[in-house]
Amino acid sequence: MSLVxxxxxxxxHVELDLEVGHGETxxxxxxxxxxxxxxxxxxxxxxxPSSGSVSLDGRxxxxxxxxxxxxxxxxTTLSQDPVLFPHLSALGNVVFPLxxxxxxxxxxxRRALEHLDALGLAGLAARRPAQLSGGQAQRVAIARALAADxxxxxxxxxxxxxxxxxxxxxxxxxxxxxAGRTAIVVTHDVLDALSLAERVVVLEQGRQVDAGPTTxxxxxxxxxxxxxxxxxxxxxxxxxxxxxxxxxxxxxxAKSPLVPGTAVLAAFRPAAVRLAxxxxxxxxxxxxxxxxxxxxxxxxxAADLSPQDAAARHLAPGTVVHLAVAPExxxxxxx
Amino acid sequence: xxxLPRWILxxxxxxxxxxxxxxxxxxxxxxxxxxxALITSESSLAALRLSLQTSLTSAAAxxxxxxxxxxxxxxxxxxxxxxxxxxxxxxxxLPPVVGGIALLYTFGRQGLLGRHLEVLGVQIAFSTTAxxxxxxxxxxxxLVLSLEGALRTAxxxxxxAAASLGARPSRVLxxxxxxxxxxxxxxxxxxxxxxxxxxxxxxxxFAGSLQGTTRTLPxxxxxxxxxDPEAAVALSFVLMLVAVAVIALAxxxxxx
Amino acid sequence: xxxxxxxxxxxxxxALTAAACGSGGPAExxxxxxxxxxxxxxxxLQEPFEELGEQFESEHEGVTVEFSFAGxxxxxxxxQQGAPADVFASADTKxxxxxxxxxxDAADPVDFTTNTLRIAVxxxxxxxxxxxxxxxxxxxxxxxxxxxxxGAATGTVxxxxxxxxxxxxxxxxxTDVLNKVTSGEADAGLVYVTDxxxxxxxxEGIDFPEAQEAVNTYPITTVDGAANPxxxxxxxxxxxxxxxxxxxxxxxxxxx
Lengths: 335, 256, 256
Known about the structure:
heterotrimer; B: mainly alpha; 13 helices; C: alpha/beta; D-Maltodextrin-Binding Protein, domain 2; 5-stranded mixed sheet; 10 strands; 41% helix; ModB_ABC (chain B); MetI-like_sf (chain B); cell membrane (chain B); sulfate transport (chain B)
């Protein structure tokens, strides 16, 4: 393992157990306040653990008796705000970490230019941060972070502040750079998680609630947050061989090879949900456009209906509906 | 301008007159035919030279001592810090003559430290060092205050970013923190220089008055009033020109 | 904007004129009781004059004597600028001459007392000063600057004794010299006899014969255009009379 984080921060009620392998990119997801920022702060050295330890490549960064200051950790953070030094040019910003490592001036300049060039920024080397667009500034920040040659790269919502038309290209570039690097990416965006990370850890209320290969966690979510990230409905219950007895009451037909009597989770897409005469009774909470469909949200489930369907049934917040899903559209797995 | 009520022009105009009119009145009193002779007399030149020399030294001392103080005040939180800040700013509101008395009881021959320095053969009172001490004492808060404000405004995010890129604290200070607050550092230095140049009360109380050693321009002006008011006016005018130049410099730096 | 500025300037001018008239008001109405007699006197005269002022008030029903004590040159300047003085007592003839040259004396000035220099040393006389010649040794000597009367007197005795002093400071006023001695910063200072008397136990006085070469004469006169010329003259008479001389002698002043 490259990073091993087993630490708690008592006053924030956070207790974490994370590992990141060499060359692996881990996505850290979860609702606000779940402990993602605390995890990053523990690793970068902005926060001391109240117990436990943080180690990177076998070196203890923090525990009860040890404290390695941030500049000495070889951990670099890239956040949604590029934080380019305003008094330095784009080139000067990328030269900065190289000079900090003691690289001679000429050498640092040459290598910084290479980094800028790799991100298609060679023409902007002389510009001040104020003269760069948001996407350009973020790419300079990436070049600068890469120039620091960290053992671990922390990406804190790196695309969150970018225009939707800039993000895909940058995500693709970032994907290239992350290949073979050890990194943690904190994100709210399923695309970030899918394209950048091999593995995902879901945090809720300061604890890890789900973990595994990204595609698997997203296909078989075990937490409400992961299900929402994947755009799936998630229910829990007991499998009786034909139907799932849901925890909150009601039954859901499904097809599953699982042994009857086991506790299961079931996931299904909102588009697979239809309105029926008999089904799970729910109250409509909201109606919002979703592509060319209408997303109907209830207490716990979402359904994507055609506008004609929604209009014909006079759906409005407060309307009681009955939701049904075809058995073949329900994916079941062990809880 | 359009959003302001017109009546504020009256108090604003009166305020401006209060500042400008006395300066203009003084300028009108300058004997231009003798002006050059008056300001180039031996005693005037000695005072001018001493003033520039001591004020520059004091400004340098303010930077040397004030920058670390401002950094600590801006970057450390703690219950004690607000107390420290108040103490540091005391010379700002203290009458300079009180500062002079305090310095006397510290560095004078019978003073807290002066007593021991005297034994070592070091005498500070009546020396140019005393002038610099007095000037630094009154000018230091100007630098600390303007720099601390700028440091707080700049925040710590650039410093944290620099540390995350592997820069040691000293490198962060010299390559990130100080360049970011350079305009405030320059205007703070200029202000403390100006304050040192105008220092009178603490100097006359603590350092004494001897041509070429401790008699700075303000002391020379005050003394010349006794015997040669025209020379006093001419020198006052010179000091005013220096003040105008200093303010113009500080202002341009700030707006740049 | 231009019209706004013009109206503001006009308003300011009116306000300033109004303020000027306001301050002039009471002075034009001298008949109003009680009467206040304004006496401008050299700072060294403070104690005896305050005593005489009380005496004067007790002898004149409804009369209040108000003193302004400052350096003689400052007082002359204030009178020239129109300060309401009835009586002016100077510490030297030079500043009285300034007043008479400006035609501001109502009667011929009368010399009413004298003061001579004396060596002041801190209690215990740490530097072992014995006479004027011993002031040229290796010690911290503080004197008045030549520009002020006590400094001029110092120059005279220096010359008469054929000595050359190397003071560590040339102070603005005799009080500043005395302060340096009482605080122990200076080993010796040249001040007036009256100052040594005033300082009590903090200093010791050493007389020297050359002091007679620089006897400082104090003239007094009523001021032209004063509000209370008769009362003013009565005060002058009190000072120059037997009673006044007695009080002055009690504070170390010499006969005229």
